[in-house]
Amino acid sequence: MLSYQHAYHAGNIADVHKHLALYGVIDHLLRKDSGVTYIDTHAGRGAYSVTAPEMARGLEYEDGVAPLMRMTPHHPLLSEWLLRLGQQQDNPQKLMFYPGSPWWLADRLRAQDRLELFELHPGEFTHLEHQTFLARAQCRQTDGLAGVVARLPSSTPRTMVIIDPSFELKQEYSDVAETVSRIQQMARHAIVLIWYPLLPAARHQELLDHISALGVRKVWRSELVRRDPGAQRGMYGSGLLIVNPPWQVPEQLDDALAEVAGCWGEQAGHTSSWWCPE
Ligand code: SAM
């Protein structure tokens, strides 16, 4: 039985990393008129309120998005993302509502685009299917990894997938790698964002090695560290792979994420490299 609930973690360092990257990728996709199918394999409940007991207990946003909302950003991608986030608050510098990945996807959905969401947890799914901003989305309470493969190839000319598991089961690292390989076989040009945690046990290495052993091509890797790995228990940073990253998105993210790390202080930093060549 699944126990993870993203409400305890909303707005944390991982959300900053993946939602900023998602925003940058969507920016690029919107430059062309042709339709996009967006598939979110692990959607969560869609949006989070700071007054919800889980978010008030976790308080992880205080270490993640909250300091960014009080800074003066310089990089255009970071400032546009923070502006859009600020527009959802009563006071743009004080977090009350944190949008999850389905919100960021739905926010810029055009008539020609499609949005498909998977969420397995019954409680989270109930929230998800009642979100009014998801009126045009298809929500399914089934396994997102099997689900995305079953939905490909999509009916639109372009496809973007976000895979953001909770990694409650060790098996998920290799399951995700195999799913990414299947996606590339079925939709060679699909853009795929895969999130993973940076933990002292370094389990993400299995995901990275498996992806490369399966021959997935054109994979860019970005790692955003919040604190020294030995400083305290638990997640010290956030990792992201982007398969088929759009032109100049890696460079934009390098600059924007360096600014994020600068705001977070001396222990924070961002590194990136090509994990698998073209
Ligand atoms: N992507 C969300 C966001 O950025 O706002 C957060 C997702 S959270 C990290 C992971 C979610 O995946 C949890 O809500 C969990 O219930 C759900 N989940 C776990 N295993 C799943 C599976 N096999 N298929 C679909 N959802 C799953």
TrEMBL record:
One of its GO terms (biological process) is rRNA base methylation. One of its GO terms (cellular component) is cytosol. Gene3D superfamilies: Vaccinia Virus protein VP39 (3.40.50.150). It catalyses: adenosine(2030) in 23S rRNA + S-adenosyl-L-methionine = N(6)-methyladenosine(2030) in 23S rRNA + S-adenosyl-L-homocysteine + H(+). The active site is at residue 164. S-adenosyl-L-methionine binds at residues 19, 42, 101, 119, 143-144, 164. Keywords: Methyltransferase, RNA-binding, rRNA processing, S-adenosyl-L-methionine, Transferase. Its EC number is 2.1.1.266. The record marks 4 as: Interaction with substrate rRNA. It comes from the Bacteria. Pfam families: RsmJ (PF04378). GO terms for molecular function: 23S rRNA (adenine(2030)-N(6))-methyltransferase activity; RNA binding. It is an enzyme of class 2 (transferase). Monomer. Specifically methylates the adenine in position 2030 of 23S rRNA. Belongs to the RlmJ family. This is Ribosomal RNA large subunit methyltransferase J. It comes from Larsenimonas rhizosphaerae.
